[in-house]
Amino acid sequence: MVDAALIAGGRSRRFGEDKAFAEWRGEPLWLVQLRKLLILPEINQVWLSTNSEQDFPAHIDGVTRLNDAIEDIGPIGALKTLFENSEADRVLVLAVDMPMMEPEALLKQVQSGPCLVSKLDDRWEPLAGIYPRQEMLSLIEQQIEADQLSLQKLLDIAEDRNLITASPVDDASRYLYTNINTKKEFASIEQGTVDECTLLRRYRKGQGFRDPEPDYLAREEPLEIRINDQSISVMMRTPGHDDELATGFLYTEGMIQSAAEILDIEHCPDVDPGGIGNTLNIRMAGDPDLGDLTRHVFTSSSCGVCGKATIDSVFQNFPPITDVPSFDPEVILSLPDKLREQQETFDKTGGLHASALFTLDGEMRFLREDVGRHNALDKVIGRALRDNIDCTRSILLVSGRISFELMQKALAARIPIVAGISAPSSLSVDLARRSGQTLIAFLRDRGFNQYNQ
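The chain above was modelled as a monomer; its predicted structure follows.
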């Protein structure tokens, strides 16, 4: 039997207020984190570990609140109270200030069998793990009696006694364990500037490929917008400040004249129980006319959207590429100069995106420009279709950022290698890895980054 607990008690001096009640994408952080535990299968009971001064609701469906019996001794006191009250064999714990943690990672710990506690390099992440309740309670009581309140020391002892097993966190998963310590850091992470960690291989002229190393990507996720429960748009965006995005979208579409016309903006818990925040429902008075939407939008009949679901839907129409040709890195390095030489309109205006299709030997087939990067790529693909060109042994080079939609369009055209002058998004990298495409970014004179291993 396994219980789960959100450790939410305490006020942070560095943060300046109670982290549990900080607003994360429109909702209090404690609620976002609790949902991750409530949707997990195999959990017997969910606890909310707090202190007596916190103003939580008197009743939370499916959750039992538990105040620390010994306050002012830190999280070790919360664990003691939790393990005393639970009757489960094992207890999964999660910190309230770890908003990037995903339910899938928590479920993996629950289903692992042994009691795993996450470890980043040589430091434990004590509030992201699963513990043997009775054995840990005895050890915690001994440590408190000896006035040894360090969780790091506690877990070192627990590991020595084979009560827990360290679960090393790999580079690609480090972002899940991001702790919120200051308001500036909180705002930065919510906005997406510190986002998803990935692995890449750097190629440098004269040095070849380096060993894989971690790097960060700007997160890209779809956002579904509904008005009075009717889906009107799915757009790709960097998560964060979605209420502002939705308000601006309605205003620029002429749907509202002021923000006062919006009664409420809320995430849809029926389609988004994990708290990802990818579906917004906007309550408006009356039934606004949705026929006048001018932006290119499309409706979704799905039960919610997320990056993984979006990629799965792509594969329904465009299967992964199974035969990706090898390439010469030196050919890749030569492509930006060839692109620049042919950008006639950019030379005159400085304001256009470009897409170009090359052979594996680096010969340019053709190039197209447009104010929109997606339009430029559509022109290239359209030309290939009209000329009956087989793209399966081609290289696509785009002049700007590589988004999910660009990778999707390239997959539709069966282009196996996509290179870009600028950065990729997190979702474009995810799609490339699952589609079999080779994704190259930050292409410069002396090197580039390859993101799919």
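Residues 125 and 346 are 50 Å apart (CA to CA).
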